[in-house]
């Protein structure tokens, strides 16, 4: 499958219809919430048990995992690729750069959903939890996204 | 989507890791009313123009492709 053939609608439908617990994180989550940032990547945080479900759902679209499910569970992350690049986090919890521990189960419990269309809902962390995910391996480039998320939260609470 | 990375100098700045203190400062630094209002207006426009997540994702793909074609840089 080359870039011209990638069907983003089909991709999101496959991800969120896989039957697993999948959170959209990264810049695509900001876009889902209405922040017009740009990105080429897709980032998801999934339940530790659900790697096989996600892989099976994306396999018909030509996505190939770079690690076996066992290796992915051992390292806490893996990549799915065809013409697109999908980063998948599956650690049960991840530390932030300032020493907090963020657990998938907690974020999943607090999740919000955004309608994608055609009966598909996208699950994503709360704004506060998205800010936390930006602090997992926080880099200079994440500062602007964190400020946007903070402003989004403040603006929404008015 | 075609990818082309930033030059090494810019990439180093872009990817510099924040320290724990920097992260704490970032979380506690207050936003100005102007920043909040500018973001609110930006989001209102984006949601009005592209009401569904599906449309917003599609906008990202088009805008990203345009930005890459113009600048040749994919690490936005």
Please give the structural blueprint:
The complex is a heterodimer of chains A (158) and B (76).
Chain A: H1 8-16, E1 22-25, H2 27-32, E2 42-46, H3 51-58, E3 64-65, H4 69-75, E4 77-81, E5 85-89, E6 93-95, E7 101-103, H5 104-110, E8 112-117, E9 120-124, H6 127-134, H7 142-156
Parallel strand pairs in A: 2-5
Antiparallel strand pairs in A: 1-2, 3-4, 4-5, 6-7, 8-9
Helix pairs in contact in A: 6-7
Chain B: H1 8-14, H2 20-28, H3 33-49, H4 53-71
End-to-end separation of chain B in angstroms reads 13 Å
Radius of gyration of chain B: 17 Å
Which percent range fits the helix content of chain B? 55-70%
Category from helices, strands and their pairing of chain A: alpha+beta
Assembly state of the chains shown: heterodimer
Q: Please tell me the overall pLDDT of chain A.
A: 93
Fold and architecture overview:
The complex is a heterodimer of chains A (158) and B (76). Chain A has 158 residues and is of the alpha+beta class. Chain A has helices spanning 8-16, 27-32, 51-58, 69-75, 104-110, 127-134, 142-156; strands at 22-25, 42-46, 64-65, 77-81, 85-89, 93-95, 101-103, 112-117, 120-124. Helices cover 38% and strands 24% of the residues of chain A. In chain A, helix 6 packs antiparallel against helix 7 (142-156). The longest helix of chain A is centred in the last third of the chain and has 15 residues, at 142-156. The radius of gyration of chain A is 15 Å and the shape is globular. The mean pLDDT of chain A is 93. Chain B is an all-alpha fold and 76 residues long. Chain B is built from 4 helices and no strands. Chain B has helices at residues 8-14, 20-28, 33-49, 53-71. The two termini of chain B are 13 Å apart. The mean pLDDT of chain B is 85. Chains A and B meet through helix 1, helix 2, strand 8 and helix 7 of A and helix 2, helix 3 and helix 4 of B.
Structure keywords:
heterodimer, A: 158 residues, alpha+beta, Beta Polymerase, domain 2, 5-stranded mixed sheet, two-stranded antiparallel sheet, 7 helices, B: 76 residues, mainly alpha, 68% helix, flat
């Amino acid at each position: 499958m080359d870039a011209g053939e990638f069907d983003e609608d089909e991709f999101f439908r496959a991800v969120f219809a896989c039957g697993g617990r999948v959170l959209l994180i990264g810049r695509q989550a900001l876009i889902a919430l209405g922040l017009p940032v740009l990105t080429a990547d897709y980032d998801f945080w999934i339940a530790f048990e659900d790697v096989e479900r996600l892989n099976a759902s994306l396999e018909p679209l030509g996505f190939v995992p770079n690690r076996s499910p066992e290796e992915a569970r051992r390292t806490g992350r893996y990549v799915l690729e065809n013409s697109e690049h999908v980063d998948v986090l599956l650690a049960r919890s991840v530390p932030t750069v300032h020493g907090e521990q963020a657990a998938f189960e907690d974020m999943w419990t607090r999740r919000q959903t955004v309608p994608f269309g055609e009966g598909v809902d996208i699950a994503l962390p709360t704004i506060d939890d998205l800010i936390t995910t930006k602090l997992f391996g926080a880099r200079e480039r994440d500062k602007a996204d964190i400020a946007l998320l903070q402003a989004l939260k403040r603006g929404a609470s008015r | 989507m075609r990818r082309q990375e930033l030059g090494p100098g810019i990439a180093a700045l872009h990817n510099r890791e924040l320290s724990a203190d920097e992260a704490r400062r970032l979380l506690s630094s207050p936003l100005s009313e102007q920043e909040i209002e500018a973001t609110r207006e930006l989001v209102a426009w984006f949601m009005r123009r592209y009401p569904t997540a599906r449309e917003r994702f599609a906008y990202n793909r088009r805008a990203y492709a345009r930005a890459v074609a113009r600048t040749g840089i994919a690490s936005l």
